[in-house]
Amino acid sequence: MRLDSETKTEEVSALLVRLCAFCFPGGEGAARRVRGVRTTEKGEMRMSPEARWVPFTAEQFIDATRSNFCWEARLDPGKIASPTITDAYEKGRGRLVVKVGGVLPVQKITGPDADRGELQRYLGSIALCPAILLNHATLEWNCAGPLALRVCDREDKSGISVDISIGEDGRPMASRADRPRVVGKKAVLTPWMGSCAEFREWEGLRVADKLEVTWHLAEGSFVYYRSEITSLEAVR
Fold first, then answer.
1. What are the residues whose beta carbons fall under 8 Å from the beta carbon of 38, sequence distance 6 or more?
2. Domains of the chain with CATH codes
3. 38-66: per-residue pLDDT in tens?
């Protein structure tokens, strides 16, 4: 009779094999040399369910070897004093900075809630940088359901994790977590989901082409972010 831990290890391995088979259609060889990805995207976002959608363009670097990313966006691109946003997790610390005209800071969020939220954003970005599956040495994987994996970084001592739902064909369909959401001057843990659609092959990687991100509030779901990847460069 097999121990439960042995069964769970086999389940995790089977899900990871399925996920990798989808993400690396040409095999894992080329992906093992990818140290990260640089992407450009366009999309729209809003601050509340009643707010208008604001267009943006963005550039992002996602590290495949450690928990590290930096997303830099310009809202209402083309306007002289359009706001810029930096969303990042680097050296174990998260930050969100908003500037007017790219110069004058008007908002800066750091601290434990930012650390948690930005690490969760990184862990949920595997659909954009699947080389993380092969090249990030400190990630730990567990089962979160019949077709779901739970991932955390062993170097983070807080136990923060993200659940990734996987389709029958192995595609990463959605990432879920309770993430800090800024409400006034405080952060409230709120169910969060990032969903993926229309995968495309870039440089041997199968990557989500379109993204949609949602807060699940008590009064209903609030989609606050929609984007499309316009270019991807594998960094080797």
1. 59, 60, 61, 232, 233, 235
2. 4-235 (2.50.20)
3. 999 999 999 999 999 999 999 999 999 99
